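Form 12-C: Joint structure prediction
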Amino acid sequence: MTQQNRLQSGGRIDRSKPMTFTYNGKQFTGFQGDTLASAMLANGINVVGRSFKYSRPRGIIACGAEEPNAVLQLGATEATQVPNVRATQQELFNGLVSASTNGWPSVDTDVMGMIGKVGGSMMPPGFYYKTFMFPQSLWDSYETMIRKAAGMGRSPLESDPDTYDNVNQHCDVLIVGAGPSGLAAALTAARGGARVIIADEQSEFGGSLLNTKETLDGKPAAEWVRAVVEELATYEDVMLLPRSTVNGYHDHNFVTIHERCTDHLADIAPVNQARQKHHRVRAKWVVLATGAHERPLVFSNNDVPGCMVSNAVSTYINRYGVVPGNELVLMTTNDYGYQAALDWDDAGRKVVAIVDTRASGKGSRAEAARKRGLNIISGSAVIEVQGSKRVSSVSVAAISADGHKVTGSVTKLKADTVASSGGWSPVIHLSSHTGSRPTWDDQIVGFVPGPTVQKQLTAGGINGQYDTAVALKQGFDAGQKALTEVGLSAAEVVLPKAETLKTDAPMSLFHIPHLKPTSQAPKQFVDYQTDVTAAGIEVACREGFESIEHVKRYTAMGFGTDQGKLGNINGMAVAAKALNKTIPETGTTIFRPNYTPISFGAIAGRNCGALFDPERYSAMHMWHVEHGAKFEDVGQWKRPWYFPQGSETMQQTLDRECLAVRDSVGILDASTLGKIDVQGKDAREFLGRVYSNAWAKLAVGKCRYGLMCGEDGMVFDDGVSACLGDNHFLMTTTTGGAARVLEWLEIYHQTEWPELEVYFNTVTDHWSTLTISGPNSRKLLEELTDYDLSNDNFKFMDWKQMKVAGVPARVFRISFTGELSFEINVQANYGTHVWEKLFEAGKKYNLTPYGTETMHVLRAEKGFIIAGQDTDGSVHPYDLGMGWCVSNQKPFSYIGKRGMNRVDCVRPNRKQLVGLKTKDPKAVIPEGAQAVLDPKEPIPMTMIGHVTSSYWSANLGHSIAMGFIKGGLDKMGETVYYPLANGTVIEAEICSPIFLDPKGERQNV
Amino acid sequence: MSDLNVMTPAEMAATKAAVMDQVPGSEIQGQSPLHHADLESLAKQGPKQGGIHLREHKLLGHLTLRCNPENADQLAAAERVLGVALPLQPLTSAENGDYSVRWMSPDEWLILVPGLEAFEVESKFRDEMGGHYSLVNSSGGSTVLELSGANVVELLKKCTPVDLHAKQFPVGKVVSTVFSKSTAIIRRTGEQRFELVIRRSFADYIWLWLQDASREFGLVIEA
Amino acid sequence: MFHIYCPHCAEYREEEEFHAAGQAHIPRPLDPDACSDKEWGEYMFFRKNPRGIHHELWVHAAGCRKFFNMTRDTQTYEIKEVYKIGEQPSVVAE
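Section 2 - Result
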């Protein structure tokens, strides 16, 4: 393949390193140093996509982040598909595979193209709102059709083989942009000894200096760039981040940077290397040296491939050695635009005309063009372009001095490229991310950063200063200011001497008039990516949308992945004209992060797959794994759920586990329960204030169950606390509530009762808790300790210190199953040892490991609640039938007392927790089922409560359930009905929630 | 098995705070939170060169002391027990031989001692210190990882948001902070050497994380 | 993402180490039982939602576990000051 638009010499590409790439299935060649866009232009590829709404062919228009059209799909394999890649930012690598994303079935022969042209006028702004709003039920099919036709890229269907990193960074000065001002700022800050990060989205530093032929100190500017970069690299505290887009500027100078580490190397990153990094930077000061984007002018058919912004034309010629056409017509409102014609002329191709919208341009560049004898047509504009897949000719006509009207006759010129320059728009996106509103500057005809509370400095193009000498000086000043602010002394930097160019005032012109009114003229595009035209904006304004934010939403202007970088100002200008206001009166839109699209991979970093969320393990976890446990997530904990044997179903497993505990002995890993060590002379008083029951008289060596309520009186956690010493308690919490309870204790201690002498420390992970439960649990424990475990010596609700299997332990005789139980607490380093010894000794008792599900069934047989399952933040202890766990004799008004005495909490007919016995003993009511009194009542039925816990009880041979019923405690023996979604109704009798051993004899033997 | 201090009811009633030697005899081997990772074998079989070196200091005695930094008697008692004064400057640490003390909070210090000395140190505190304080043995609840090597700062930048620059984080500094999606107590013990105290239940997650995040540098396990 | 100075650790840390714990300076009534339902409801549920200066309670959850107060501008997100529990703010809304 020939690169017909490639120059023989010049540019920053390496002609000795050819690289092949594929675009839409065809192979092409470019060079190392190319972007995908420059390589495509070198090969004369005109059409890179079809437009979103009208399906018009589109070509490359710009050369950087602002490119709206060349948004491609990359990836050689299914797993490496990347949508939304701007060809202008993607470096070429050997073997790159790309495809256009807009266009169905193909960009060159597009079905929608015809429809688009015919239906174009039938798709006014707001079309989607107006047409597809109703009926709602059809939206799905509309959406499918629209999406297919629009085609905005696609995500891969296989998982990404690459890894990504999140990296935390800190610095004194973060410099965004490594053009002349950014480099000057970095050099200054670095020499002053600051910690500096300088990031630039391009593959190499230099910014605009790489795109021009300008000189510094009489030498090519690139030489100064190289010297500065080399010096910066020598500082230990300077981090250079090329290929890194500063994407978000957040509060307190928190800045996110998207670094593409290996995107330029291959389809997949080299082994062990992260493809991209997401840097999370905390900077003391931020210097925005982000430069400016050139605005294209809005004229009829300005989207035909071959229409480009003028500085992109210069960049392709100077940086990549590519002339993107043969015959150029340049239209400009300012002096800077002339450069493209000069560069085009230097490249040896034909400059057909320079059309200056001003009466005359007398700046240095205009003079140079005049000297060369280039054809300059002043006071005129390109009012229309002809061509379909490439510009073929242009219409030029004289316009009025205010730029509102065509005043002369039309001349047609043959050309294949139209470069336009409507002036520059400072890249203020980052400064507006934190909420700062940009300010309009009439002098530079653009928005500049507005006032901010951030520690932010700006330099160069972002301030509307496009002169290299000024940019260098502003960068230097920003560097010095940052040094002073972070407490360092000024640095010595001698700035290079830049060429001084005389520039004339630019003309404030955005929208080129046509012979016909805008509504009838060929389409004049404002936002290429969302196909918003000048006519569309006028329609929006006519229809009453006056706020620019509303115009934006109605027309979709700026809603593309390019955020309207090229189009927004032009759109505001069109709206301003239509509304007869100035641009600042019309307002501006605020840009939001991210500046350019970022891959999900970079955001996720390593937090995916097995590392998506921590899995917390108890000390015995490996034993559980080896013994076939199925696990349940409880918060971040992996808890054994049940231990199936052979081909057992879950229900069979549960039945076996439940029976084993009641018949002999079972063992539960209860280590995940939260444990808080409470010490201090006021520990007891503190417990009395945070639990609803009394703690004043609990003796050393005793345990007690407690309910914890909020100030509203509602139960939020429960657990057993043991009195270890007169000033020493061990509190247990639910597994999921551990962190919350500790913070609860701390906030009351630190903010309300600092005078109480008490300290709280978490010991959840420190203790392994091995609960053996069942009639044989004493016999089992006796085999591993010589401590006297008799009921006389070791009573129910006592705790004792002893050795178990040789390991010092605190054993609590408490029970959550209603059986004789011992909770053995040993230092977690010895948990597995004791666990295994218990199994060695437990063989003859058929010691059965059980998980959380069996625990739930067993406790439900006893009517014990689980906070968070049988409570939902709206029930107080009395609602639970647990008034026995409330002490109103305590002198201190404990947390929850006042709350549960509010009028609504003491009214009759509150929902109360009761037991539910189904008429059909085999029917298990689904948890969450709603109770009604009359199953024949028409829908909506009167619901009087719901089921919170429901199981099949193998021990009892029937189902058991607990649930809330309005006034349930007074309705014992009454019948309620549970109508299910499948039409059946389960009938149940209200009963005590204690289904087994109501006197508690089994645990007290 | 009667060597354990079994107390009479009267003794128990008089107990203000319960202290127990939690370590069994040497015939029973403790298992650190990373026991299942078998770092010993990895140290023998794994690579010997890389930018990150990892070593677990397992089964140490971890004691959390809470007391009043303005109580001179308590400070003196702590110094008598540890042979070094409690660091009172925020985020600093102190060492005396095998004993190391980390400032955790204005009234909290994490003390690491050899595993078999935990009870002895705990008992000494109970003997020496008066007034309102708390001392908690948390040896089973955490373990210590030592990370070192040429790329150690680069690795840690992926794991924690704290600033690790030597000017901000000199040798001896200690912070309790976020570590990937868990937490860790990080202390700098050398220019390219850090100590991490991590919680038992999160140890496997952090171990997986460190293996993943250090891949580009090469991970060497030491034992 | 805020950058928060912890008054106990005496340095700036990232927001992810902290939890916000709601409005500051809401003392628990000393005699709850003497409160009317209305008074108790106001203590429990009613909070300010100002545009501008606001005093909040935060805790250095992953750090020293200490609670402290913060005066913050809810519009600009500027943190005007942090101060310990028991201290009063020096920056207040006009």
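Section 3 - Comments
Chain B touches chain A through 69 residues (CB under 8 Å). Chain B has a mean pLDDT of 94.
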